[in-house]
Design brief:
four-stranded antiparallel beta sheet; Translation Initiation Factor IF3; alpha+beta; five-stranded antiparallel beta sheet; 5 helices; Alpha-Beta Plaits; 3 domains; single chain; 40% helix; 32% strand
């Protein structure tokens, strides 16, 4: 009986020892796992200044009259003068488009006032769509010549303003992503060095959207392209 008790004690001892060792191994494994899960999150920014490669130039003109028939004829003449001006300054038929003319009978307006001098008001827009960005900017300075010929060019507003676009984003995307990634890695390396760690492998990476904005309000034909890449790196002791 005593012999069996001794055997049970010895067996229990080894079982307990085994559980302790197993717990120790599990603990070390958890510590090791947590150490490999130490990460640093960084972001890399790439910026590039580019020049717009497309110009959209809407030119709106307006006329008023009490004679509707005369007004339509006058608008057609002014439209021809405007198109001739654009062609004389180097724009082709393919680059010029004409919108539908809009005519308003002011007396039919609910807010009609007898003080209105002209019953009918008509306006139309001729638009230049071209890749000759610099040329558009130069010809825009000459548009006052049309006013001297009786073409009443309307000032531009938010919905009817000259636009300068950059449409070659795909050509610069790879290089900008590479630059943003490299800058983010530089930050991660410095962080690892300052924290007395070693930079490990890349865990995750996410590319943000490309944005294109005007460099400033006075030069809308010069754009700033930006992209941010977010990354996580493992840290090792």
């Amino acid at each position: 009986m005593e012999k069996n008790n001794g055997s049970n004690i010895i067996a229990g001892f080894f079982v307990g020892l085994g559980l302790v060792l197993l717990g120790l191994f599990i603990y070390k494994a958890i510590i090791h796992f947590k150490s490999t899960e130490r990460v640093v999150s960084v972001k890399g920014l790439a910026e590039m200044e580019v020049k717009a490669n497309i110009a959209i130039w809407p030119i709106t003109f307006k006329q008023v009259s009490n004679d509707l028939e005369y007004l339509y004829k006058d608008m057609e003449e002014k439209q021809e003068m405007l198109i001739r001006f654009l062609k004389d300054n180097g724009f082709s038929d393919e680059e010029i488009s004409v919108s539908q003319m809009v005519t308003v009978d002011r007396q039919a307006n609910d807010y009609y006032s007898e003080r209105i001098n002209y019953r009918y008001s008509s306006k139309n827009t001729v638009t230049v769509y071209t890749d000759k960005v610099d040329h558009v900017r130069e010809v825009m300075k000459k548009v006052d010549q049309l006013g001297k010929k009786g073409v009443a060019i309307q000032p531009q507003d938010y919905d009817n303003r000259t636009q300068f676009l950059f449409t070659k984003l795909n050509e610069i995307k790879p290089g900008m992503v590479e630059e943003a990634t490299a800058k983010g890695r530089e930050v991660a390396i410095k962080f690892a060095k300052d924290s007395q760690s070693k930079l490990g492998k890349l865990k995750t990476a996410r590319q943000g959207q490309f944005t294109i904005s005007n460099r400033d309000s006075n030069t809308p034909y010069i754009k700033i392209v930006r992209v941010v890449v977010s990354m996580q790196y493992y840290l090792a002791n």
